Amino acid sequence: MKKLIIVLAALLVVAAGVYLASQRLLMQPMAESAPVSLSGASAPGGEIRCRGRVVPVRWLGLTFGTSGRVARIAVQEGSAVRKGELLAELEGEESELELKAAEQRLAAARARLAQAQARPLPEELRAAEARVASAKARLDALRASPTAAELEEASLRLQQARNRLWGAQLARDAIGGSGASSASYEQARASVAQAEIEVRLSELALEELKAGASPAEIAAAEAALAQEQAALARLKAGPSPEELASLQAAVAEAEIALEQLREARAKMVEARRLYAPFDGTITSIAIREGQAVNPSQEAMVLADLRELQVETMDFSELYVARVRAEMPVEVIVPGSGVPILQGRLSYVSPQATVSPGGEATYRAIVTLERQEPALRWGMSAEISFGRTLGKTIGR
């Protein structure tokens, strides 16, 4: 029993000692630690700190306007270029056939219009009048009855043909009878047959002459005369307003088609070339000659490195309401060798970027008061908002 009492008394003494020691520790004031650079952290005195990175004010990833294979790269990484300078181009050759065809169509349309607008030449009028006279003479000849002289001439031709037939028959009969088969006899028989054909043709010609022209022949001759007369009248009068308007419209259409084709070809050529949109430096090249590329692929990056700024990387939503435009900002860029850079807050993004873990941050831009030659794109930076200008961070 005595041993139990002794143990309990000892435990009470230890517990009392622990209690008193803890109370002394709680009553002692905590030592104030020096400020540290934390992500989006609020430091003593209302100071806000975050991390950032040096970036150009103006930079652009360049892409081609079409797909193709890289024919030439005219610059190198680090090259200083001027606005409009050719940086690279793709392979490609435009076919001239389509362009030449469009030019020929326009030339033909213009020639037709010029011909219609020009007055007829004297030789053209004489030729048209001669064609009218010839067509009229043929029609008159068809309409007229055969003259006595024409009938007499046709009768004489028939009589001559009959005389030649009789002579051929006499020559054949003199060689031998119908049973003869010598070569001379066969030749005589052929002469008789040819003479019989000539007699028949002469008889038909005389009969046709006596009958006169058919209604179909007269109608055809009348149509031919009317056609030649109409052509002569059009030649003298020139084109109608409607015809001129149609020819002018054809010329305008051909001109538009040619211009559209030229513009399309020019755009295709430009799409295969990469030009510098502003003065700057080629900071990276992601293509090589002979490589196949497409419009969604970044070919190279152009930046104006004469003016750099600092962009925040983790500016927390907890402090975005505490900053204001044009407020002073102090920046430390360890890689630059410059102790403190002064700047001002020039921009805060209106929309937050939310990380997969749910943390919301805003993009803020710090414009530097002066450009330091030692600054490089991509250098890490520590940014302090709300400090009095001239104070050292962590002081």
Largest sheet: 6 strands, antiparallel, barrel
The total number of structural domains is: 3
Strand order of the largest sheet: 2-9-15-12-11-16
Task: State the helical fraction.
Answer: 40-55%
Helical segment count = 7
How would you sum up this structure, described in words?
- This protein is α+β, with helices and mostly antiparallel strands.
- The protein has 3 domains: about 35-60 and about 305-385, Beta Barrel (Elongation Factor Tu (Ef-tu), domain 3), CATH 2.40.30.170; about 65-90 and about 275-295, OB fold (Dihydrolipoamide Acetyltransferase, E2P); about 100-250, no CATH class.
- The chain contains 7 helices and 16 strands.
- It has helices at about 1-25, 95-115, 120-145, 150-175, 185-210, 215-235, 240-270; strands at about 40-45, 45-60, 70-75, 80, 85-90, 275, 280-285, 290-295, 300-310, 315, 330-335, 340-350, 355, 360, 365-370, 380-385.
- The strands form 3 sheets. Strands 2-9-15-12-11-16 form a 6-stranded antiparallel barrel. A 4-stranded antiparallel sheet has the order 6-5-3-8.
- The two termini are about 65 Å apart.
- Residues about 1-5, about 20-40 and about 390-395 have low confidence and may be disordered.
